Amino acid sequence: MSVQKRQIMQVDEAITKLLEVPLHGTVEIISLEDSDGRYLAEDLIAPHAVPPFDRSPYDGFALASQDTKTASHKEPVMFQVIDHIGAGAVSQRVISEKEAIRIMTGAQLPRGADAVVMLEVVKEHGVDAFELSRQINKGENVSYKGEDTKKGEIILTKGTRIHPGVIALLATFGYSEIPVFKRPLVGILATGTELLDIREPLQPGKIRNSNAYMIAAQLRKLGAHPVMLGTLSDDYDHTFLGIQNALKTVDLLITTGGVSVGDFDHLPRVYEELGATLLFNKIAMRPGSVTSAARFQDKMLFGLSGNPSACFVGCELFVRPYIVSSFHARKPHLTMMKATLGADFLKANPFTRFVRGTVTMNDSDIQAVPAGLDKSGSVSSLALANAFIVLRGGTRGWKKGDAVYVLLLDGEGSEWPWTVLLSK
Amino acid sequence: MSVQKRQIMQVDEAITKLLEVPLHGTVEIISLEDSDGRYLAEDLIAPHAVPPFDRSPYDGFALASQDTKTASHKEPVMFQVIDHIGAGAVSQRVISEKEAIRIMTGAQLPRGADAVVMLEVVKEHGVDAFELSRQINKGENVSYKGEDTKKGEIILTKGTRIHPGVIALLATFGYSEIPVFKRPLVGILATGTELLDIREPLQPGKIRNSNAYMIAAQLRKLGAHPVMLGTLSDDYDHTFLGIQNALKTVDLLITTGGVSVGDFDHLPRVYEELGATLLFNKIAMRPGSVTSAARFQDKMLFGLSGNPSACFVGCELFVRPYIVSSFHARKPHLTMMKATLGADFLKANPFTRFVRGTVTMNDSDIQAVPAGLDKSGSVSSLALANAFIVLRGGTRGWKKGDAVYVLLLDGEGSEWPWTVLLSK
Q: Signal peptide position in this chain (chains A, B) (predicted)?
């Protein structure tokens, strides 16, 4: 597994390889109140119709349309008001000829009525009568039982992400306990003698372990449960044992650093000694070309770069779809969109670049501008970025005004953007 | 405050009125690990430079560029390797003439060195020497101290939303405790005799209180802390006392239902009896035209419609910017984008419609299609929608292929989309 043997793989190929050995989501039942952002583990059906009964969508009078047949300005029809109901009340009365019931929005249509006339249409005679001077059609101003959803219909499918609108639907049908996919436990192990904890003061030659905190936040955002396992110094045995131990307690493991070809990059040898199956260790992308994945028994090991930006990109491009696919989500990848490049980016590269960028949507178009310093070690650019600008590999640089694709860091996700993103 | 007196207000006017009496965010200190999605309450400065020292961005040999001046293919220069350091180690040696130190990515540049030559460029003679056959410039392959961030620079400004990239930056600088704006306590009180709890079986004429659960999820998503205060039946005194009590314990209060002009719509009278200042109670929009806001002492009362879709829209258009502005966020409104209408929508309306829709981004364009049933009482459309399609009020309907604006429910937010959205 020396540098010479590394085979370059395209981003889409690498993701395909990952998803061929998927993480299988397991199911748990949680309260509706705790279900934000989780993914449904089952199709759910409507246990009853919605609306659950014929109801009035307005304030008005419920009546039988039949009785309005002759109504006109010249010969208005007089109705007797025999009851008065608000939403939640059910009238015990049945409407007979030329009778009506005063009904408020959301109340159940009384027996004998097949239409509602709005308050402003009639001329009231006290509280007990009104005259109507136009014909009302059957079904006018009635929200019929089941017009929104029929009993037994599938209302939500497995893999649906639970957002406020979904919660509204679940509550409507009385789903208070929800089957969702469990958050997988994802171990995070940072390797590198240079790493200090964020609570330690700086020391010569050392930097703080920002990657672990960053990845933990990325994982929480995509619905996994990060487990911070600390740092490993650049000692081979220490690294091997640390990884071997970590694998016992988590569903998958992310390491940062140690995946390149430097003298202290131990991960390739660790994979070998574990007997893990290497999926990839060199991707045709910048930053993060050393991003690696290997499979140990039923667990995936992701070896991300120790460079903050490269690490971030590796997590979003590879770890994200691997985990989100375990929730059966239909759009596990970052959200792809078209944009106009707002600044020159003249450095050509044979590999496809994922430049941290800022996408601005304004009245006329969508502009994407590189954010901060474009070096794989840059961290300030990560704080500014809301997207990756995808600059396909090739021999030329890119110019302001060029049409590009971007991958948004916030958004609903894409189904499979790679065919579009990587095609020449 | 009867129906006749209601003054129609445009959406942007109503929001302007709200933001003239802003909610003032208060500050708390939380752990970095708990800060996802929160908003910084202060500008933060860099307590040190990043990188904190000159370092090597590659695996190679650190040397003095001066010594390479004469190097060429014909006359390569031989260097002695006097030390070997990985990231985190600091060499105790100082480079003298024709000396070099083997250095790994991330390690501090040794004293006496001013450039790094990459491993693959040299011809190694065992571990102690190599020859170099080209000139190396001063600063070549050196990441200089402070090139990413200088000490004392403002790294993040007040109002920044904390996402994984921001967390990376905070961790880099050792910010383990973060000043953020507190989540305001937002009471949710549903009014209506028809409302059952989500854990109750259906009863004739009644429906479950889905709005409170939906709003709670909307509030959590935008960073507030919902307080579920139950339901109030359509009895005036009960409603008045319930609201008066609720106001004592929360920072702002949302009610659902009771804001229209029906016989049991008590909210207008409650506002009056409380002595609250009405901001608006009729908006030129569909759904949710009865959306109301009133100010009682230093607290805002939002009166949202009882219809699920109208309630949802009212929360996103009005409650969202009111709360998110208290975090000093620069983009407190829903994310505006241009799209192509993917289906006819022929019902003309003098009011601007916010149609629940599904926005799909594909290779060629961004399509927006209405989701499900377009009635204010519809709830299934909310589960499907990822955006509002904004159809400006007027005398004509809208056709497939028309250019429209959409407001995305997921996204970074917009600064002030209203000028664009509502202009003719």
A: none
Q: Which of A195, A198, A256, A378 to mutate to test the interface with B (most CBs of B within 10 A)?
A: A198
Round to whole Å and give the CA distance between B257 and B380.
19
The domains found in chain B, sorted by start residue, are 3-26+182-325 (3.40.980.10), 29-50+150-181 (3.90.105.10), 60-132 (2.170.190.11), 335-422 (2.40.340.10)
Hunting for tokens 């302007």 — which residue is that? Answer: B16
Question: Could A193 and B155 be called an inter-chain contact, meaning their C-beta atoms sit closer than 8 Å?
Answer: no
Q: Is the pLDDT of residue A4 over 60?
A: no
Nearest to A334 by CA among A317, A351, A322, A319: A317
Q: What is the pLDDT of residue A1?
A: 38
In chain A, what percentage of residues exceed pLDDT 90?
91
pLDDT for A31-87, tens place per residue?
999 999 999 999 999 999 999 999 999 999 999 999 999 999 999 999 999 999 999
Question: Nearest Cβ partner of B105 from A156, A198, A260?
Answer: A260
* Tens digit of each residue's pLDDT (9 = 90 or more) over B18-58: 999 999 999 999 999 999 999 999 999 999 999 999 999 99
If we measure between CA atoms, which residue out of A99, A62, A296, A94 comes closest to residue A187?
A: A296
**pLDDT exceeds cutoff 70 at A3:** no
- Round to whole Å and give the CA distance between B162 and A11: 28
Give the three-state DSSP class for B76.
coil
Q: Inter-chain contact B102–A263, Cβ cutoff 8 Å?
A: yes
The pair of three-digit structure tokens given for residue B275, joined into one six-digit string:
């002595």
> Parallel, antiparallel, or unpaired for β B185-191 and B252-256?
parallel
| Eight-state DSSP code of residue B268 | H
Cis geometry, peptide bond prior to residue A110 (ω within 30 degrees of 0): no
A172–B32 CB contact, under 8 Å: no
Q: Which residues of A touch B338 (CB under 8 A)?
A: 361, 363, 365
Strand (E) or helix (H) holding A384 = helix A380-384
pLDDT at A406: 96
Q: In this complex, do B375 and A195 lie within 8 Å of one another by their Cβ atoms?
A: no
Residues whose CB falls within 8 Å of the CB of residue A315, separated by 6 or more in sequence, listed in order? A215, A218, A219, A254, A302, A304
Round to whole Å and give the CA distance between B424 and B419: 10
Q: Which helix (H) or strand (E) covers residue A85, if one does?
A: strand A77-85
Q: Which residue of A has its CA nearest to B386?
A: A412
Cβ distance of B382 and A169 shorter than 8 Å:
yes
Distance from the Cα of A36 to chain B's closest Cα (Å) equals 7
Residues 6+ apart with CB under 8 A from B297: none
**Sheet (strand B129-132) strand order:** B115-118, B60-63, B99-103, B77-85, B129-132, B123-125
Residue of B nearest to A197 (CA): B174
Q: Measured between alpha carbons, how far is B229 from B241 in angstroms, rounded to an integer?
A: 13
Q: What residues are paired with B354 via a beta bridge?
A: B390
Query: Rounded distance, CA A303 to CA A196, Å?
Result: 20
pLDDT (mean) for B241-267: 95
Of the candidates B309, B290, B313, B284, the one whose C-alpha atom is nearest the C-alpha of residue B394 is B284
Q: Can you spell out the DSSP letters for A54-78?
A: -B-SSSEEEE-GGGGTT--SSS-EE
CA A224 – CA B129 distance, rounded (Å): 49
Residue with tokens 């583990």: A41
Contact B101, B113 (CB under 8 A): yes
pLDDT range class, residue B374, cuts 50, 70, 90: low
Residue A8 carries which DSSP code? Answer: P
Best of A45, A410, A414, A421 to disrupt the B interface by mutation (most B CBs within 10 Å)? A410
- CA-CA distance, B160 to B153, in Å (whole number)? 16
CA dihedral A146, A152, A154, A156 (to 10 degrees): 80
Determine how β-strand A292-296 pairs with β-strand A352-361.
unpaired
